[in-house]
Amino acid sequence: MPLDTFAHERPASSAGLFELAPAKINLALHVVGQRADGYHLLESLVTFADMGDELSFCLADEDSLMVSGPFAPALSVGVEVDNLVLRARDLLRDCLLKSSQPAPPVAIHLEKNLPVAAGIGGGSADAAATLRGLLRLWQAEIAEAELLALALKLGADVPMCLKGEALMATGIGEDITPLPELPSLALVLGNPLVGVATPDIFRRLATKDNAPIGQIAAKDWMPLLKTLRNDLEPPARSLVREIDQISNMIGGEGALLTRMSGSGATCFGIFPSADMAQTAAANLCGQKPDWYFQAVQTVGRKSGETS
């Protein structure tokens, strides 16, 4: 099963079957407890961007994965067992074969557009997109509950990435409640291209039974979001000093709110309009051309400008 990070021939790219693996943004993330098995209990307000990694799929004589894109070199080339795309493929194939559904060899091309270990669900989103894409390619059927259980085996964030909609996630991330009233937001994402290991952040977390988010029934979302937080941000800031800088830079461009997403080091700023977000991202790229800045629009109810 070849893994070619710098492939020039990409048969899956011409197949016409594509899946976006959108960036996942934790608008808020509260750590509210810890299970006996060590997993942390979370409450997270989640949305997804209109950009991310891109995957393409086609039937082939043998399985293959080709990886390209600006952040492809950051992946662990050759360590195939740890690649979530391949694990998703293999788990889904095993599941389908047990129900006598065909799952023939497939060529997959992953264009890695998102920073790695950045707190925006890159690997989890890739795994979820793989599940969606292969179900389409193989013309297979699987019960939703079984698919979500399979996704959870790949990681706590994969079920929410499989949904790809505005939602509240609780438990370890597997209990999902859609939030169709959450508006679409204009954001700027920023990352200093410093990878963050999630276990390191949780080990530095001083308090693991913080106040929950509680019930969400908002009409004025911006005031609500300002009352929430990311409990992983303080330990991440102590580990990666650039988080302070990048948050201040985004805020200095006129963001209504800045916060870190997930376990970092990506920060986001919410802007009053898409045009303002685009201008801010361009300014920030000019200030720090070696860092990652991207203007995005999130999924959600279209509501005009953020108040």
From TrEMBL:
**What residues bind ATP, as annotated?**
P115, V116, A117, A118, G119, I120, G121, G122, G123, S124, A125
**Which InterPro entries has this protein been placed in?**
GHMP_kinase_C_dom, GHMP_kinase_C_sf, GHMP_kinase_N_dom, IspE, Ribosomal_Su5_D2-typ_SF, Ribsml_uS5_D2-typ_fold_subgr
Which top EC class is given? transferase
Question: Biological process (GO) annotations?
Answer: isopentenyl diphosphate biosynthetic process, methylerythritol 4-phosphate pathway; terpenoid biosynthetic process
EC numbers on record: 2.7.1.148
UniProt keyword annotations, A-Z:
ATP-binding, Isoprene biosynthesis, Kinase, Nucleotide-binding, Transferase
Domain of life per record:
Bacteria
The reactions it catalyses are: 4-CDP-2-C-methyl-D-erythritol + ATP = 4-CDP-2-C-methyl-D-erythritol 2-phosphate + ADP + H(+)
Ranges for the GHMP kinase N-terminal domain? Answer: 83-164
What range(s) does the GHMP kinase C-terminal domain occupy? Answer: 216-285
GO MF entries: 4-(cytidine 5'-diphospho)-2-C-methyl-D-erythritol kinase activity; ATP binding
Pathway(s) annotated for this protein in UniProt: Isoprenoid biosynthesis; isopentenyl diphosphate biosynthesis via DXP pathway; isopentenyl diphosphate from 1-deoxy-D-xylulose 5-phosphate: step 3/6
**Active-site residues, Swiss-Prot/TrEMBL:** K24, D157
This molecule's function is given as: Catalyzes the phosphorylation of the position 2 hydroxy group of 4-diphosphocytidyl-2C-methyl-D-erythritol.
Which family would the database say this protein is a member of? Belongs to the GHMP kinase family. IspE subfamily.
What is the protein named? 4-diphosphocytidyl-2-C-methyl-D-erythritol kinase
Q: What is the lineage of its organism?
A: Bacteria, Pseudomonadati, Pseudomonadota, Alphaproteobacteria, Hyphomicrobiales
Give the gene name. Answer: ispE
